[in-house]
Amino acid sequence: MSSRLSTAPSSASLSTLSIQPHELHPSSHRGSSKAWVDPASLPNHHHASFIDGNTPDYVKQLNYNTFMCYGVGEEDCFGYKVGKSVRFIEVNVNRKLEKQGRLEATTVAEVEVTKHMLNGAGMLHGGCVAYLIDNCCSTPLVVLGLIQSVNGVGVTQSMNVLFHSPAPLGTCLRIVSTSIALGGRVMSSRCEILDKDTGRVVASAFLSKMQPASSKL
């Protein structure tokens, strides 16, 4: 692996190192403890839109299965209508120069603000923002876990959300989520929700998660 990182990039401004195709396939599983949620064991959910990005199709599919099964749930679960309308458009894993070649996963999703997502003032409800962040910001950790053969599915410990601007009915939200750290039990990621048409930041957040012991659930 070090030989692939030894060649200096042609420009000092480059922050991403190229990923070799074989690096985006899982290696042997680390550790012997069984994960409390295994993305490969979840039911398959059809994603109507094409998902771009450099990750293998199976990673995109397992990530979406995890999002739907664990984050969204059944039809009578909280926020189901909102969660089901989220469409992932891009899933990438890159090796970051400024992180000494460590892998970083990014997912991009979109959703349109509809009437049932509004508050009394006719703007996107803060609770709906938190719901979107909790679910979407978890996905790069799932993706990175699949690539590195560790479990990136966890329960939320904390979420720090900043609200920057309102989003009225009909706004197309672009949700960009990026992994920060993925450890054995503790993991973190960050997220920005943008107005796709204007580029305004609607909200930003940091998310901290942990993987609990299955025997305690």
TrEMBL record:
- Alphabetized SUPFAM superfamilies for the sequence: Thioesterase/thiol ester dehydrase-isomerase
Determine if Heme is one of this entry's keywords. Answer: no
Compositional bias, Low complexity, is annotated for 1-18
| UniProt xrefs under InterPro entries | ACOT13, HotDog_dom_sf, Thioestr_dom
Which positions fall inside the Thioesterase domain?
122-200
Q: CDD domains, alphabetically?
A: PaaI_thioesterase
Give a Pfam family name: 4HBT
Tagged with keyword Hydrolase: yes
- Keyword tags: Hydrolase
Disordered, as annotated region: 1-38
The GO terms this record gives for MF are: fatty acyl-CoA hydrolase activity
Similarity-based family:
Belongs to the thioesterase PaaI family.
Protein's recorded name: Thioesterase domain-containing protein
